[in-house]
Amino acid sequence: xxxxxxxxxxxxxxxxxxxxxxxxxxxxxxxxxxxxxxxxxxxxxxxxxxxxxxxxxxxxxxxxxxxxxxxxxxxxxxxxxxxxxxxxxxxxxxxxxxxxxxxxxxxxxxxxxxxxxxxxxxxxxxxxxxxxxxxxxxxxxxxxxxxxxxxxxxxxxxxxxxxxxxxxxxxxxxxxxxxxxxxxxxxxxxxxxxxxxxxxxxxxxxxxxxxxxxxxxxxxxxxxxxxxxxxxxxxxxxxxxxxxxxxxxxxxxxxxxxxxxxxxxxxxxxxxxxxxxxxxxxxxxxxxxxxxxxxxxxxxxxxxxxxxxxxxxxxxxxxxxxxxxxxxxxxxxxxxxxxxxxxxxxxxxxxxxxxxxxxxxxxx
Length: 364
Ligand code: ADP
Ligand code: MG
What we know:
alpha+beta, Rossmann fold, six-stranded mixed sheet
C-alpha cells in the first residue's frame, strides 16, 4: 500500500531558485505516474523531495496519510533509480544488488537467494560476479533496477533511467519496466524529459514547466485537448504548428479566424464557443497538428509557400514551410511528388484546430 499526496509543495533553494511551485497531486496506490517536462523544470527536485533527499520548503508530503516531511529518507520505504545508475564501482553486481539487504542485516544465504532470484527476472544471472565497469549500459541499468527491487519498496522512483541508453535498448527497456511494474504491484513515479517516452509508458502524465504543473492527463487527453500552448507544443512530434490569428465576425455574423489577412470561417459550434468566451475581436494563437494540415488546390483557402524541407519517412512524408516567422510542418502521403523549392498551398480544416489566447496561451 502506498498512496502519495503532494499538497501544495514548494522548493526554494538557498540561492533563491524557485525550483518547484505549488505542486499538488494525488497518486493512488499502485499507480504509474509520469513526470515529463524540459530540462530544469523541477522533475528531479520533486522526486528527491518525495524520496527525502531534499527538504521540502513548504507544503505537505503524505504517504498513506502520514506526514513525511521530516521522516528521514531511510525510513520512507522508497527506492530510487537514478539516471547515472550510481552503482558502487568496487563492488560486484551481486554485492551492489545485495547492499541494502546487508545494511538490514539479512543473512548471507538469504541475500544470495534473493539476488539470484531477481537477477533471473532481469537477465543478469551471468554477470553477478562482474564489476560495473565490465557491464554494458543496458546491464548497468538493470543492476540499478535490481538493487531497487531487492528492497521491496512501497514506492519506486525512477529519474530518467533510460536516457543513457541507445534508442533500441531504450524501447526494449521501456517494455521491461512496464512488465516490472505489473509484477511488483507498487506505486511508480517515472521521470523523463522525453515526451515520446512519456506518451508510450504513461497512463497518467504530469506535464511540468518552470516548476509548475501544466496539465495532468492521459496521453490521449494531452494530445487531443492540451490545456495550454506549452503542452500543445511539447507533446507530439513534429510539434504542433502555431499561427497568429484574430477572431472576427462579418456583417452576416459569420465568425472566422483571420490568419495572415485571410478570414477562415469556423464551424457553428466553434463560433458559439468563441462568442461564449468573449473572444470576438481578440487575438488568438491557432494550433494545428501536422497531420491535420493538407496541401490544398488553388481554389481552396490556404497559404502559398515554398517548401523549405522535404522529409520522406517511409510511410509518410513531411513538408516544412516558413510562415509568419515560424516553421510549419505538413504531413502528406509518402508518394507525394512535391519537393524542396516547389511553391504549393497548404491549408487545414478548422474542425481540427486548437485555439489558445494569445496573451497567456490558455486553451479557449
Ligand atoms: P529537472 O530534473 O527537471 O531537469 P531539476 O529538478 O534538477 O530539474 O532542477 C530544477 C531547477 O532547480 C533548475 O533551475 C536547477 O538549476 C535548480 N536546482 C536544482 N538543484 C539545485 C541545487 N542544489 N541548488 C540550487 N538550484 C538547484
Ligand atoms: Mg533531472
